[in-house]
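Weekly sync, protein design subgroup
Attendees: M.S., D.O., the rotation student, P.L. (late)

Item 1: inverse folding check
M.S. brought a backbone from last month's batch and wanted to see whether the design step gives back something sensible before we order anything. D.O. pointed out we never logged the input encoding, so this time it goes straight into the notes. Structure tokens as presented (130 positions):
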């Protein structure tokens, strides 16, 4: 059987069935009080809203509506695929829309990435018509 290549839009569409699923956050995030591991990446220049793709705007809206959640929750909240999320997250950080915080929630394992909306993201969402 031959594998079919799926583009980002098709991957995003395939996630619609997940929207009905219940998100069960890890116990570590119930009352998280992690310690910041690294400095956040910030770009001071405000970018114009018209440089955003529809998918980037979906993610920005999800981060503004649900700030400081683990990054693994945002694909479902934004209605995008995890692969798409991995591609656009660094772009939005570079453009100055979101800030990434790394928090170590346990003595071992990978740090959680929490996403914070910056003022430019909030202004973009407030300026958008649904």
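Designed sequence read out in the meeting:
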């Amino acid at each position: 059987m031959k594998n079919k290549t799926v583009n980002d839009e098709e991957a995003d569409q395939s996630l619609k069935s997940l929207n009905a699923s219940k998100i069960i956050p890890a116990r570590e995030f119930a009352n998280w009080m992690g310690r910041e591991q690294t400095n956040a990446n910030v770009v001071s220049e405000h970018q114009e809203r018209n440089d955003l793709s529809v998918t980037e705007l979906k993610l920005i809206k999800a981060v503004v509506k649900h700030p400081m959640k683990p990054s693994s929750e945002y694909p479902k909240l934004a209605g995008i695929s995890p692969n798409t999320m991995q591609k656009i997250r660094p772009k939005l950080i570079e453009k100055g829309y979101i800030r990434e915080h790394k928090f170590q929630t346990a003595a071992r394992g990978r740090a959680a990435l929490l996403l914070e909306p910056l003022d430019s993201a909030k202004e973009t969402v407030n300026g958008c018509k649904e």
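Discussion: The helical segments are 8-14, 54-65, 74-78, 82-94, 119-127. DSSP finds five helices and four strands in the chain.
Action: P.L. to compare against the previous round before Friday.
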